[in-house]
TrEMBL record:
Residues 8-48 form the F-box domain. Residues 73-304 form the KIB1-4 beta-propeller domain. Pfam families: Beta-prop_KIB1-4, F-box-like. The lineage of its organism: Eukaryota, Viridiplantae, Streptophyta, Embryophyta, Tracheophyta. Transmembrane segments: none annotated. This is F-box domain-containing protein.
Length: 333
């Protein structure tokens, strides 16, 4: 008599769901969905919390939580930053993206190949666009990359002293640079399928990028300011130095703007006059209310009053590429 071979799909869906809810690493969730068709359907039906991050070490090795599995990323010395499941590699004038699971590679245009993009002269509900003179002899550097789709990549770029928005087609040969930036607090995010930008005055704009059907060039068809400031509250720190930075981050479907403030003071034994020691960190959070077109201060995030949750602050850290050696990089799970 043939013995019945039980399948993983024989496990009741409610029991499989309990297993899924205990998987906090993205790699484990991918493996769960790959077991069988029923488990894959189970993975799609449940709203899961954000996965735990990956930690990238100098040299290209990364490990995951909670099991501390370690992996080696090829060409890790060229690692720049991350965007979702994409790793960004940049060196000299070369930049490309690698999907961490499918291993798909998207080559981006060389960083010395760029031109001014065609865009509106006015920002709807905003201001006139500034005229910028691009120094074509300067190689562009990447600060942050957003993968809108496999057909469109947006980035914050530095060209000399200019920080601005640039877009390109993966596999294309040219970056298209906007005049929208110029603010060092400039940030971008893809939220609800829309490309959004914010400046140091907390002006939030939506950007529509299209392709010219005649020549295939990208152009910006519309720039609209959907939230007008106001600027962040003024801070003072007598006898010390304040360093600000801000990031757009998505949390449970909401769009948050987080400002991090570092309070620094020179150490007592400072002899060079250039050394600053961080003595305190503060984070301020506001949420975009698209109905009233304003920022709303958040007193609690992730169930913790007065602070951004640990996982969300890790996600905020992902937005800024680490430039120096010997530091820890963070990747979304």
């Amino acid at each position: 008599m043939a013995r019945y071979q039980r399948s993983w799909s024989d496990i009741p869906p409610e029991l499989a769901a309990l297993v899924l809810l205990r998987l906090h690493a993205h790699s484990d969730r991918v493996r769960f969905a790959a077991v069988c068709r029923d488990w894959r359907a189970c993975a799609r039906q449940h709203q899961l919390p954000p996965p735990l991050p990956w930690f990238i070490l100098p040299g290209g090795t990364f490990f995951t939580l909670p099991h501390s599995e370690s992996f080696l990323i090829p060409n890790g010395v060229e690692f720049h930053s991350s965007c979702g499941e994409w790793l960004v590699f940049a060196r000299d004038d070369i930049c490309y993206l690698v999907d961490t699971f499918s291993k798909v590679t998207l080559k981006l245009p060389d960083l010395d190949m760029y031109d001014r993009i065609e865009e509106p002269d006015e920002v709807i509900n905003g201001h006139s666009m500034c005229y910028i003179c691009l120094d074509v002899d300067v190689t562009m550097s990447i600060y942050k990359v957003i993968v809108c789709s496999v057909l469109l990549v947006a980035a914050i770029v530095d060209i000399g002293d200019l920080r601005t928005l640039a877009v390109c087609r993966p596999g294309g040969n040219l970056w298209f640079v906007s005049a929208l930036g110029y603010d060092r607090s400039f940030d971008i995010i893809l939220h609800g399928g829309k490309l959004l930008t914010v400046d140091g005055w907390r002006n939030l704009c939506v950007i529509d990028v299209e392709e010219d059907s005649d020549n295939g060039s990208l152009f910006i068809s519309r720039i609209e300011r959907i939230i007008k400031g106001p600027p962040w509250p003024f801070r003072q720190f007598p006898g010390g130095l304040l360093v600000f930075d801000q990031y757009l981050v998505e949390s449970h479907g909401a769009l948050l703007l987080v400002r991090g403030t570092i309070y620094g003071k020179p150490p007592e034994d400072n002899h060079t006059g250039f050394e600053i020691r961080a003595v305190r960190f503060e984070f301020e959070v506001c949420e975009a209310d698209f109905q009233s077109s304003q920022w709303v201060e958040r007193r609690s995030v992730g169930g913790r009053p007065g602070a951004v949750s640990w996982a969300e602050m890790l996600q905020v850290c992902l937005c800024a590429p680490v430039q120096s050696e010997g530091e820890l990089h963070l990747l979304p799970g």
